[in-house]
């Protein structure tokens, strides 16, 4: 495996590619998409550049791969950001031109189904960024959450170490995009107590790997994850999506990683606060708490069996919930369980 390379950072005024490597949702909710683009322009000073499939409702995997390769090859493009996730990006990977991407590394931002590309870039030796899709945190009702905006700004433009801050509030009930009257209304938020630290009390520093747990499971099934020894000294991050996998499924995925000899390689395991609500399943706050506890127990069981010496941190503000901290996949992270601090190098 190659050494990891941090791509050069964009600067305000640079052109940034906006791609839809998974679902063509910008074609379905163009006003939400445009809101995210306007914030990239107005609040971050970047120039969004669309490619042929960015607003295409049904682009083929080969067509989407062509746009990804073209965005990396284009010398006028300084970074790449996904419009949103989906559920079939794994079919895009075999159509990518890896030599072009490896020769032209650029910062890539995305999460959820974009865990596929984050892992693919990791294999190519390119640090990429978990978080920051156009139609989610950037197009949040009312305004971007300050923590999301600050983290994205640091990941885009800064190169040094950044200490992460736990949020004082949390949301997992996004506004209904079909209701245009909610564009200026912030989503509902609840107060939270921050991160929960368990396991070993020590400092772990190393490269980060992971993403959406459901997508990691698919990648493992398809044979797209590096051999276990590649992850010696790494830190694992996992979070789950709005599909709300049951605790049993979370445990089985982590157990299978353990049986593969993978889970034991990680000195620290970071777990995102679970998404506990969707438009089809609308649990009460009490039911949400039960679901989150079941998922945390599932993680604890797997870690106790396969990585008992690991530092374990729950309820990070990452991935599918609001706000969203950006994490560098393949980049450096320091998990200090003594002082209970987490820092990343952007």
TrEMBL record:
The keyword Cell membrane does not apply. The keyword Phosphoprotein does not apply. It comes from the Bacteria. Residues 205-335 form the LD-carboxypeptidase C-terminal domain. Residues 16-131 form the LD-carboxypeptidase N-terminal domain. Its EC number is 3.4.-.-. Keywords: Hydrolase. Pfam families: Peptidase_S66 (PF02016), Peptidase_S66C (PF17676). It is an enzyme of class 3 (hydrolase). One of its GO terms (molecular function) is hydrolase activity. Belongs to the peptidase S66 family. This is S66 peptidase family protein. It comes from Catellatospora aurea. The lineage of its organism: Bacteria, Bacillati, Actinomycetota, Actinomycetes, Micromonosporales.
